[in-house]
Amino acid sequence: MIRWLLKHTFYAQFCAGESRAEVQRTMKALKDVGYRGIILEYALEVLKSEGGNVEKDIETWRQGMIDTVQMTAEGDFVGLKWSGLGSAALDLLQHNQPPSPSMDKAIREVCDLASSKGVKLLPAAEETRTNTGIDQWSLNLQKQYNNTPGKVVLYNTYQCYLKATPATLARHLAAARRDGFTLGIKLVRGAYLAAEPEHLTLATKEETDSAYDSIAESLMKRQYGSVLAPLQGFGSEAFPAIDVVLACHNAVSVRKAQALRSEQSARGEPKVPLVYAQLQGMADEVSCELVQAGKAQLDADSEKLDIDVPEVYKCATWGTTGQCLNYLLRRAAENKDAAGRTKESRRAMAGELWRRIRAVAGLA
After folding, report:
1. Residue 154 has what DSSP assignment?
2. What is the pLDDT of residues 295-334, one digit of tens each?
3. How confident is the model at residue 155 (pLDDT cuts 50, 70, 90)?
4. How far apart are CA 66 and CA 200, in angstroms?
5. DSSP string, 258-291
6. Whole-prediction pTM value?
7. In the chain, how long is the greatest CA-to-CA distance?
8. Residue 340 confidence class, pLDDT cut points 50, 70, 90
9. pLDDT band at 354, cuts 50/70/90?
10. Averaged confidence pLDDT in the chain
11. Is there a contact between 44 and 84 (Cβ–Cβ < 8 Å)?
């Protein structure tokens, strides 16, 4: 009974399904709304580096990831967690060690399949104790798979609530410029705040918001700034090629980014490849505002080239209810203050509801 209730309430709100048929129905429904594509994430992750059967854990992850990539279409993304490879992988990540040969073989099989399908891979950041290892695994793969101009297969995730993130990103930008690959960047505020030591994180939400907006602006302009400063000792402020996913539920941050992109389009300036992303079941008012902005731009200026049409993706996580449990617990933590939504959010949701009613009635 408890499993049934979870599956048809909280799970249904935030997850895409347990089977291929359920996932494909969810993906179609999301794309029908007008989203450019889907970020389909396999929920499997491990939080404790003990127990487990190493080879069985690797095979479970490998098959789950192959299934995930095969369910997506060209232009979609696939989210993943390196810790999903099992407790042995988590131990390696915590000690900043490379994947074992059997892990590496499974990882490269997934990367090769994604590359052949035109699907992009988004490894998630996790807790600080594993992030150095995660960064290294992801960066090493980017050197191999992101070295063709205009093609990006691998990304890395940067959590803006961490004090160290600007310096980490600066190091990775310098590495990409030095080694000649495109740095794939997924920018988030972060979802592991409760698990992080306080001295590693920014003190307030306002500081995190400011850091996110400043880093996003630097990336969009390909210019270092007050938060994202160039790596000390390199001297040059030139950026490498980058490809950005702004994963953001904050309407103010999204509007700032959209305004800057529109200004760049109007001035005929080159723009970095960039998409917006929000989680399934969250910030629908932000996602739909972007979708409608894009439609309005196309309707008003269909012949013009100097317009910015936002590319919006919804991130849908799939797996069994057990596999999705940790993901759902993080969503619950993020939504614990849902009853206290701001007036602005309530207005935005009411406006989106009214727009949909008008569309159904043929009045839009």
Report:
1. B
2. 777 776 655 556 788 999 999 999 888 888 888 888 777 6
3. very high
4. 35
5. HHHHHHHHHTT-----EEEEEETTS-HHHHHHHH
6. 0.87
7. 62
8. very low
9. low
10. 88
11. yes
Angle (nearest 5°) at CA 205 between 135 and 191: 40
Q: Which amino acid is at 96?
A: N
Residue 186: strand pairing partners: 157, 245
Q: DSSP letter at 232? A: T
Q: Hey, what are 249's tokens?
A: 């539920």
Spatial separation of the C-alpha atoms in residues 206 and 4, rounded to whole Å: 39
Model confidence band, residue 193 (pLDDT cutoffs 50, 70, 90): confident
Evaluated on CA atoms 110, 112, 114, 117, the torsion sign reads negative
Q: How far apart are CA 254 and CA 257, in angstroms?
A: 5
**Which residue in this structure is represented by tokens 């000649």?**
180
Dist CA 113 CA 106 (whole Å) = 11
Distance CA 353, CA 350 (A): 5
Name which of 249, 141, 120 is nearest 191 in CA terms: 249
Q: Which of 124, 75, 42 has the alpha carbon at shortest distance from 275?
A: 75
| Antiparallel, parallel or unpaired: β 312-318 and 183-188 | unpaired
Strand 274-279 with 120-123, pairing:
unpaired
- Amino acid in position 54: V
Collect all residues with Cβ–Cβ distance below 8 Å to 279 and sequence separation of at least 6. Answer: 14, 249, 314, 315, 331
Instruction: Name the token pair of 300.
Output: 């008003």
Distance of alpha carbon 183 from alpha carbon 180, whole angstroms: 9
Tell me the C-alpha distance between 121 and 111, whole Å.
8
**d(Cα 91, Cα 177) in Å, to the nearest integer?**
30
Handedness of CA 8, 10, 13, 18 (dihedral sign): negative
Token code pair at residue 290: 């972007």
| Cα distance between residue 251 and residue 230, in whole Å | 28
